[in-house]
Amino acid sequence: MVGLLLMSKPIHTDQFTAVNPLRLTAEASLLRKQESRGATNRRTRESALLIWIFLTIMLFLSSGLENILAFETAFKGYARNSLIYWKPQPSNDQRLDNILNLRLNLRGYINNQITVGFELKNRLFTGDYAGELQQTATINLGRSFFKWRRNIIEENEWLAYSEIDRAWLDYQRGNAQLTLGRQRIAWGTNLVWNPIDIFNPSSPLDFDNEEKPGGDAVRAQYFLGDLSRVELAMELQHNEHLNWAALFRSNLYKYDVYLMLGERSSSPIVGLAWAGQISGAGLRGECAAILPDASNDLNRAEAVAALSGDFTLKNGLYVHSEALLNTQGATGDSCAILAWRAYSEDWLTPAHWSLFGEIGKDLHPLVRLSIAGILNPIDNSYYLGPSLYWSALTNLDLSAVYLYYKGLTFSEFGGNSDMGMLKARWAF
């Protein structure tokens, strides 16, 4: 085709002698590369379209699963689109990208004792800087033993992957319950930071994941009564570390109390948590201590502790605050240097002290305005996140969120990217 394009135009002798043949060859090669790149982009877009069409068809077919299978099933999920305006640091360029999430959740009720769960997480990143956006949106590190994530599209402007986020079998008999497979083991009482959640702790800065991460684990529970139980859980991570912990939960003097003992990344760990109310205000606390051992380089016990409180005023104004102490955190102005180690070793934060605050109010039964933020009182960096939520229809929610970060270059929040997001979420 390139040759036809070149020969379709009359070439005069003086023009021909004035043109370098190597230049013609280079231009033809460049044209072929452009055509090849264009074809690749078209194939990528076609592949993405076929994938989402297939998943949409699965949504409609799911209602007939019970006619195929010999047991009761339940299928639900959501699709959420996030249009994101952001300014990456340190370039401060203005960018516009998009994240499309499709969550598929399936339950199978084999009988009164056995339940199976399967949840598929699909994400599509589009835009000129889709790769950078994916890295920014992936705060929680992948630590599952089984690699159940597959990249579907890997192009400059298109990135898509599917991941099995939950796959478990649950068996109950009498007061005993056993759960095997990829699951979420959520321990703790606080709403932001959970020091005793040793299996897959999450970050409050994770702006695009509604579900907390799951792990490949075995969990056994025995219920001693309506308010008391004992648990034993073991999780195998990608580095072949076996995290395990035993938990006792009970209610004393109208307070929920948790006692935990286990091992995380080969280090012994003990924990305590509690939750209750004082004069109508919720009060919670958690503390975990990592003990020195031959498996770590600690000279003393290190602790992570968080205290939380929330209440609602008579005018409907909701107020929530939390304070976190991490004895391994940075005590100077170079908190960002510890960020990677902090998240990879489950510190919850690289800071020595962290203060969280949130206020919110329903402007209408279907509209809510709120603002949340985190302050590092040592390096004075902070983040603010105002948001507006509207339940537009029964299954359709719309929201607008802005994430603003402020701080010096090596402070905890100084290098983060400001983001403005418009989100639409449809549940089915």
Short description:
The chain is α+β, with helices and mostly antiparallel strands and 428 residues long. It is 17% helix and 48% strand. It has helices at 2-7, 13-18, 21-61, 65-68, 130-137, 339-344, and strands at residues 72-87, 95-109, 114-126, 149-154, 158-173, 176-183, 215-223, 229-236, 242-252, 255-264, 267-278, 281-290, 302-312, 318-326, 353-364, 367-375, 382-391, 396-406, 418-427.
Task: Give a structural overview.
By secondary structure, this protein is an alpha+beta fold. It has a single domain (about 75-425), classed as Porin. About 15% of the residues lie in helices and about 50% in strands. It contains 6 helices and 19 strands. The chain has an 18-stranded antiparallel beta barrel. The longest helix is centred in the first third of the chain and has 41 residues, at about 20-60. The two termini are about 50 Å apart. Mean pLDDT is about 80; it is low at about 1-35.
